[in-house]
Write a structure and sequence with these properties.
The complex is a heterodimer. By secondary structure, chain A is mainly α. Chain A contains 3 helices and no strands. Chain A starts with a helix and ends with a helix. Chain B has 6 helices and no strands. Chain B is an all-alpha fold. The chains are: A mainly alpha, B mainly alpha. The A-B interface holds A 6, 9-10, 13, 16-17, 20-21, 24, 27-28, 31-32, 41-42, 45-46, 48-49, 52-53, 56-57, 60-61, 71-72, 75-76, 78-79, 82-83, 86-87, 89-91, 94 and B 21, 24-25, 28-29, 31-32, 35-36, 38-40, 42-43, 60, 64, 67-68, 71-72, 74-75, 78-79, 82, 85-86, 176, 179-180, 182-183, 186-187, 189-191, 194-195, 197-198.
Chain lengths: 118, 198
């Protein structure tokens, strides 16, 4: 019984390790050899990183194997929610701010030009 | 086994799982800390103040080797936990020793990269981009250094006290911490380095 459990854990570590290596190399080769381009490439390598996140969560940290109630999973979902809000919220706000600032600068310089300089 | 023993054992188990949950919650808050550093980096990535951009300073093959070393150390930490469960102390300690050497190699490589950048005049004070880069990657490095120190402390404990319940619990938490740091590194590798050279 205990031996069986140890064997299945060993399989899970080896599987996680091999999958992570494959995913890391896949992302590296895509970038180093310029196989895709632009937004598609960015989307694919971020996708590969997220797959690797779940591979390591399941195979290394054994998430989903805990007994109910699944507090670990709940805490993880909450943290992921906060992470997404922080990262995408910051990017959204700051990009908008940059855009608005540039608008202003553009408008100001146009006003100045219209008035024939300072 | 008397009823009393059974009750005591259950109490220990629930204490253990509470400690594990508490540590897991700590890891999740650490996740939020890294998220804010990632967000800062993403926002400031283009603000190079006339200095080098991420394309100029990153050496991908070097970072790939760093990544593989850290990944392998995460794997060997897992193997150490397997030996711990089997009650094989010497085997557990050798796997953690391998993990330690790999982690130390990773840290030295990272510090080499940092000192090269600083020597070329591209230190954290040069631009907003470099400040964000050093803060994000440096915080990860600091976590790795803490993990290595913790590993030494626990290995000394394991040597002196043997595999007692509390030592085993701490070793399990250390391995969780180590796996967590590897997961953070995946995102540093992807977002900072791979996307940095595009």
């Amino acid at each position: 019984m205990e031996q069986e459990k140890t064997n299945s854990l060993l399989t899970s570590y080896v599987a996680g390790f091999l999958l992570s290596i494959i995913l890391t190399f896949a992302a590296y080769i895509l970038v180093a050899n310029h196989i895709l381009s632009g937004v598609l490439l960015v989307a694919v390598i971020i996708g590969l990183a997220i797959i690797q996140l779940f591979v390591q969560l399941f195979f290394f940290l054994h998430l989903g194997k805990e007994s109910k109630p699944r507090w670990n999973l709940l805490m993880l979902s909450f943290a992921l929610g906060v992470v997404i809000i922080i990262v995408f919220g910051s990017l959204w706000i700051m990009n908008n701010l940059n855009y608005n600032m540039m608008q202003d600068m553009h408008d100001n310089s146009k006003d100045i030009r219209d008035q024939g300089g300072f | 086994m008397t009823t009393n023993d059974v009750v005591l054992e259950r109490m220990h188990e629930s204490q253990n799982s509470k400690t594990m949950l508490g540590f897991w919650i700590y890891l999740m808050t650490d996740c939020v800390l890294f998220a804010s550093l990632f967000a800062t980096y993403a926002v400031l990535h283009g603000n190079t103040f006339g200095g080098p951009t991420s394309k100029d300073i990153f050496d991908l093959p070097f970072v790939l080797i760093e990544t593989l070393i850290l990944l392998t150390s995460s794997f060997t930490a897992g193997l150490a936990i397997l030996s711990l469960r089997a009650g094989k102390r010497t085997q557990m300690m050798s796997w953690f020793a391998v993990t330690f050497v790999l982690g130390l190699t990773f840290l030295i490589m990272e510090l080499t990269e940092f000192s090269q950048l600083a020597a070329e005049g591209n230190s954290w004070s040069h631009s907003a981009f470099l400040s964000a880069f050093f803060t994000l990657v440096g915080t990860h490095g600091l976590h790795i250094a803490t993990g290595l120190f913790w590993m030494i402390v626990l290995l000394v404990q394991a040597m002196k006290k043997g595999l007692t319940e509390s030592v085993s619990r701490r070793l399990t938490m250390l391995s969780m911490f180590w796996h967590f740091l590897d997961i953070i590194w995946i995102f540093i590798f992807t977002i900072v380095y791979l996307m940095g050279v595009l």
